[in-house]
Amino acid sequence: MVTTQLTQSLRTSCTQTDASARSCNGSRTSCCRGTSRQLRARLQVLRIGGDLMTARVAVVTGGARGIGREIACRLLSDGHRVAILDVLESATKTAGELSDRGRCLGLRVDVSDEGAVADAFTAVSGALGPIGVVVNNAALTAVHRPWESVTGDQWDRTMAVNVRAAFLCARAGIEQMRPQRWGRVVNLSSVTFLSGQRHLIDYVSSKGAIVGLTRSLAREVGADMITVNAVSPGSIRTEIDVENFPDQAAVAAQQAAVQAIPRRGTPADIAGVVSFLCSEDASFMTGQLLNVDGGWLMH
Ligand SMILES: NC(=O)c1ccc[n+]([C@@H]2O[C@H](COP(=O)([O-])OP(=O)(O)OC[C@H]3O[C@@H](n4cnc5c(N)ncnc54)[C@H](O)[C@@H]3O)[C@@H](O)[C@H]2O)c1
């Protein structure tokens, strides 16, 4: 099933619809001279915005929309090849919108399903090459309800998508990173873990677990030159945020009152930090939680 989707995805031509999609086609990239043909074929060294970096294969979970889509777009623009794994059917369409050069694949996958994750990672490396970057962005986003009303099944589902999936994808990715002696795992936490927000007990608990996973995994894989970090977004305007909070003017005013930088956060604010964590510049940084919230919480 994953293989069929992959074939379809590779055949998908560009259907760019907006300015952000146009910026994702790697037009800033150029091959660096002086590298041996063999090495170039394997790693494709790129000069981007004045910085030398190495193009990799990146998996972005939950990349069909919102923050994940913007991360996929930014990593493509950095020169990486990107696979979007999302439970939404639109994963393939998003991949087609982001790149017209077969550098972006979209696969419909439930990342909490162990077998599906294994199949997807095999399919991605078969099509794009060995995976060097995993961004665990997929999540069931916050459903506000008093803590006593959360059922055991709801708790388990939130943990499965928000924590188990990150473990499964990190494990599948790291298996391919180890022989490369290079790798990046970036996990999406949330500012709600730091604030201990009420009426979100399963979500907040899962976002705390992501920090534990980040720290423990960082210790285990550092010797393989693989870094593991987490990013905690503050209040970011995405499709799901607008759906959950239709009165966006009120949200903007509320955030302006508590943040040092009085504007709404955007998916690009998060994608820029993820891009840095995936770069060579972040090679000596691991096990960290970076708060990207306009100075809402300071710790
Ligand atoms: N938007 C914010 O204000 C905010 C704040 C803090 C943290 N975050 C975190 O940032 C990340 C992205 O948030 P967003 O606002 O873009 O939300 P979103 O709901 O738009 O994105 C989540 C994506 O994950 C996908 N997904 C859900 N379950 C899946 C599964 N089982 N398998 C594969 N894909 C699955 C969804 O289809 C969606 O595309 C999440 O981890 C979220 O917790 C967001």
From TrEMBL:
Belongs to the short-chain dehydrogenases/reductases (SDR) family. Residues 56-234 form the Ketoreductase domain. Its EC number is 1.1.1.-. Gene3D superfamilies: NAD(P)-binding Rossmann-like Domain. Keywords: NAD, Oxidoreductase. One of its GO terms (molecular function) is oxidoreductase activity. CDD domains: SDR_c (cd05233). It holds the Pfam family adh_short_C2. InterPro entries: KR_dom, NAD(P)-bd_dom_sf, Sc_DH/Rdtase_CS, SDR_fam. It comes from the Bacteria. This is SDR family NAD(P)-dependent oxidoreductase.
